[in-house]
């Protein structure tokens, strides 16, 4: 595609292969298959979104991964580009379109609100960046991807908890979901979906049964009969000011409970 995604990679060798995988999955999985798309240009996003729908995707996740490396590029320009891509894709497909966001906005809540207003059917918090390190032997950038840990779950939990009661959309948590108890945490914050990758890469797909058993054990220990009974229990209530005050109080509580800081 002229000016499209993954420039320098022959489309037939990568993109057509992924479409083939999607077709087989859509035919055999027995559940709706959501396709995730990352692109470079608006034309590329739109072109391949059409291809994903034609291949059987039940919905599309637009995976917004962008490094604003140009000092002359403003935050407003980045935000407007994301919204324009969402609108362009929605104009060309009939299936639901969700957005996977990076956490690096000056006002993530406002950006989430604008995307929902522009037609996003759901929000995925957050895109996990894979940052290269610096190797000293030899002196060169180091490509060393690390699987997520449960500690990384805290940032998406905060924002899911802040937004899930305020925005009329579905929320998915991504990054750091490594156990059944982590899934419970996502639900307590108000998420509708908990995305799991690293745990399955570590332990295999059978680990899903373990995670479900951990969730069930947590619920049975508290005599909770359904997810609906506790979903959103720890999501932010009241005004935005009340939520900010709560977070400030938690910040002080964390500092005072940490020996190195509380002395």
- As laid out across the biggest beta sheet, the strand order is 1-2-3-4-7-8
Q: Which spans of ≥5 residues are poorly predicted at pLDDT below 50? A: 1-6
Overall number of strands: 8
**If you average the pLDDT, what whole number results?**
92
How are helices and strands ordered from N to C?
A: HEHEHEHEEEHEHEHHHH
Task: Write down the domain tally.
Answer: 1
Question: What is the name of the CATH class?
Answer: Alpha Beta
What is the CATH architecture annotation? Alpha-Beta Barrel
Q: How much strand content do the residues show?
A: 5-15%
Q: Indicate the multimeric state.
A: single chain
Q: Biggest β-sheet, characterized?
A: 6 strands, parallel
Number of helices: 10
Helix- and strand-based class? alpha/beta
Model description:
- It is a single chain.
- Helices cover 45% and strands 12% of the residues.
- The chain is α/β, with parallel strands linked by helices and 263 residues long.
- The chain has one domain: Alpha-Beta Barrel (TIM Barrel), CATH 3.20.20.
- The strands form 2 sheets. Strands 1-2-3-4-7-8 form a 6-stranded parallel sheet.
- Helix 2 (42-54) runs parallel beside helix 3 (75-90) and helix 6 (180-188) packs across helix 8.
